[in-house]
Amino acid sequence: MNRSSQDTGSRGIPEDRKLYVVDSINDLNRLNLCPAGSQHLFPLEEKIPAVGSNSGNGSHSLFLVGLIIVLIVSLALVSFVIFLIVQTGNKMEDVSRRLAAEAKDIDDLKKINSIIVKRLNQLDLEQN
User: Which UniProt keywords apply (predicted)?
Assistant: First the structure.
């Protein structure tokens, strides 16, 4: 009936992993209780079981390299899109300036045309 917190949290952990956890906890306790340098602790690699311990390292590193490549490519694409947006905005400004200048020229041509028509009408009236 009385279960410790270690028993309830370790249901899905294999037996060799449980031993590793308990051994690590013991090492931490020794570090806290004994003076520094009085006890040699085993390196972490010696305590990890050899069965399946390095099976995922290659796939994890390959995944990370792939992820980094995808991030770099997406960053390059986003930069290119931003560059195109800026260039399009500059072109639109140039076109709008040209249209405004041409509209001004068209207004000037209309004024000149109306002056010519008035002058021709005056000359026509003087001849009659």
Answer: Membrane, Transmembrane, Transmembrane helix
The amino acid present at 67, given as its one-letter code, is L
Distance CA 21, CA 26 (A): 9
Q: Which long-range contacts (CB under 8 A, 24 or more apart) does 20-23 make?
A: 20/47, 20/48, 20/49, 23/47
Q: Which two tokens stand for residue 56?
A: 């995922």
Cβ neighbour number for residue 11 with a 10 Å cutoff: 6
- Condensed to tens digits (0 to 9), the pLDDT of residues 11-51 reads 666 676 666 777 777 777 777 665 555 555 555 555 555 55
Q: Report the greatest alpha carbon distance in the chain.
A: 129
pTM: 0.40
CB-based contact 20:50 (threshold 8 Å) = no
Render the burial of 26-44: b for 16+ CB within 10 Å, e for the rest: eeeeeeeeeeeeeeeeeee
CB-CB contact of 23 with 47 (8 Å) = yes
Scan for tokens 């209309």, then name that residue.
110
